[in-house]
Amino acid sequence: MSTNVLIMPGSLRLGSYNRMLASEIMRLIAVSDAVVSRVDLSDYPLPIYDGDFETEAGVPENAKLLAQRIAAQDALLIVSPEYNASIPPLLKNTIDWVSRVRKVDDRPVQPFKGLVVGLAAASPGRFGGLRGLEAVRIVMRALGADVITQQCLVSNAATGFDESGRLTDDASRSNLESLCDKLLDTARSLSRHG
């Protein structure tokens, strides 16, 4: 049975370094035996999370659809920018809403519980998004995800990609390949659907 991997960039900006990194990850995983897909959060617009809104209107349909898609995966690779040393609001809001989904097709579900999660970031700064990923790691572990230790950080991202979107630094490319290998190996061994 194939391993299903979903790549989720936490940015909507067209020139985003993290979207470029997500494309590079897609290329790497696509040559494996895994089934890889990518989600664009602009396809799942959500209001800012508000408990009163949830009480009155319920969980938005887009959160349910995204939760269903995530629940069908063996692994999720989050590619996140860093905003003020933390999680960007788009990504955090999405995670918050998806975590509120309790049923998919009348079956109980916890979309992140037991999900193998890998983390990557690209940043124009010298830390490569490290602090933001630490914040994402804490949130995902709190939701029951199996977050792998291996991660990829691309610092100085303004010069980190060539004109075709490939990583220019050998160390970054090696680190990314290691992340992808570890994610796939862990997902195969801990598959939620096998």
Descriptive overview:
- The chain is an alpha/beta fold and 194 residues long.
- It has one domain: Rossmann fold (3-Layer(aba) Sandwich), CATH 3.40.50.360.
- It is 39% helix and 18% strand.
- The chain is built from six helices and seven strands.
- Helix 3 (61-71) packs across helix 4 (89-99).
- The longest helix is centred in the C-terminal third of the chain and has 20 residues, at 170-189.
- The chain is globular.
- The N and C termini lie close together (7 Å).
As a percent range, the share of helical residues equals: 25-40%
Span of the ends, CA to CA: 7 Å
Strand content range: 15-25%
Number of helices: 6
What is the spatial order of strands in the main beta sheet?
2-1-3-6-7
Along the chain, the helix and strand elements come as EHEHHEHEEEHEH
Corresponding CATH superfamily: Flavodoxin domain
Question: What's the CATH class label?
Answer: Alpha Beta
Question: Descriptors for this entry?
Answer:
two-stranded antiparallel ribbon; 18% strand; globular; five-stranded parallel sheet; 194 residues; Rossmann fold
Summarize the structure.
By secondary structure, the protein is α/β, with parallel strands linked by helices. It has six helices and seven strands.
Give the topology.
Layout: E1 4-9, H1 17-30, E2 35-38, H2 51-57, H3 61-71, E3 75-79, H4 89-99, E4 103-104, E5 107-108, E6 116-122, H5 130-142, E7 146-154, H6 170-189
Parallel strand pairs: 1-2, 1-3, 3-6, 6-7
Antiparallel strand pairs: 4-5
Helix pairs in contact: 3-4
Organism: Jiella mangrovi
Protein name: NAD(P)H-dependent oxidoreductase
Domain NADPH-dependent FMN reductase-like: 4-157
